[in-house]
Design a protein that fits this description.
Oligomer: single chain
Strand content: 15-25%
Helix content: 40-55%
Shape: elongated
Radius of gyration: 37 Å
Strand order of the largest sheet: 8-9-11-12-13-14-15-16
Structural class: alpha/beta
Amino acid sequence: MIGFFGKYDRLFSKEIAALAVLMVANFICALTVSIIFDNQDPETRSMIQLATIAFISMLSCVVLIQLNSSRVAAVEAMDTLVAKDKLTGLANREAFQKNLANRVENEKSQAFILLLLDIDRFKELNAFLGYSSADQLLQQFATRLAQLAKTDADAARIGGDEFALIVPYDGSSDSLKTKVRDIFEALYKPYLCHKQSVDMTVSMGTTLFPEDGKDPEGLNQNAYFALQRAKKEGHNRVCCYDEVADSKMMDYHYLSQDMDRALQEGEFVLYFQPQFSFATGKQTGFEALVRWAHKDRGVISPNIFIPIAEQNGLIIPISEFVLRKACQVASKWETPLKVAVNLSPIQMRQCAISDLVTETLLETGLDPKRLELEVTESLFIDINDEISADLLLLQRRGISIALDDFGTGYSSLAYLTSFPFDKIKIDRSFVQNLANDDSSMAIISAVIGMGKSLNMQITAEGIEDKRAYEILRLAGVDQAQGFLLGEPRDIEAEPEQTAQTPLLPRFEVA
């Protein structure tokens, strides 16, 4: 009770005071009547008391009605204030979702388009213009959005630079195209900030009621995935919900949300694929390859979950797990084979990799000469002195540094002179095209020649047929890796396989 009055006393102090005065007046009035008419006969005194009570009751009712009206008006004003976004004056997320639910539940509701909008690269504008100027742009954007809405609750700000809009349409594709085009054009026009023109682009995801969904949750989800597809495809575009295309976005979202749980519960496991020397025929080591053994979906390939982990930030803990686990497993092998571990460019840029590797080797007791770190070409596009110094420090401690997947993405032989790699790994795409593409052999020959001149070993991965194996052996490749020679497997489940050094199988090419 004290908390209640403490919360509302500023709004209703006058009414509460009036009610208190009325209660005191009623008591005094009743007492006075009893004293004055005490000498009257009982019948007269009873009638006077009844009249007094009736008068006091009527007066109390009038006051209470007035108090209630004031309270209702204040509550309504407060609800209206709470339902508004403070900066833009649009409906906030809660009010918008309530309006959406009301529309969906109304059987007579007209077909409508639900749009989720995101201002492209608004964080850059915020950093460049400053918060106050960026707020002005948001207010201008909100004003245009409000003009497109049919009611006050049909346009909302649901996040920092995220907005939502409900637009009725007649259910035809022509009406849909017209409505979306008009919205896009209205929001695309230049904005003013300190008398200067500022261009802003918008990504939009749309879904239709009732075609795409008949409940608020489904409509929101459909519009969200359409918006994510618009942003992923380059921003400044509109994407309508598509069941086939957005099922991939839904799967992406599900895996991203589930990844942290999987990391905590130990669902990520390491498989090891053998590597062989062409010259001696002996196995030289294993490459550690991470897999996601999902509790419901089985084993998930890194080609699927690694890009997701790079987006949601979990690539760093996953990469650290792979490094520690690989070193821990390799330290227990009776045969001192090498273990190769992939490093993420994101991990390299955000972490002191030399400290992490040194700490891991001390913890596991693995000889640094038995560790090989594989980095990709993308790391060397904007490599800084700190990263280069880290790699050189590790190299001086006896750890090998290999350039992985060479020939893809940002292919250039110049990368071979930018850092003293110990090894070059030729990407599987060139190896698998050897039989059908002469240019692949030309590239491999160039890499082999340059690598040898720089005293670097050459490894070919993705060897899956005997012909490619023989061509690479004759070309002078140093090491071989691929399904033809051994598939990735869980060594911890088969520890006896590393007790001896297997020999490279010899093949006869027909």
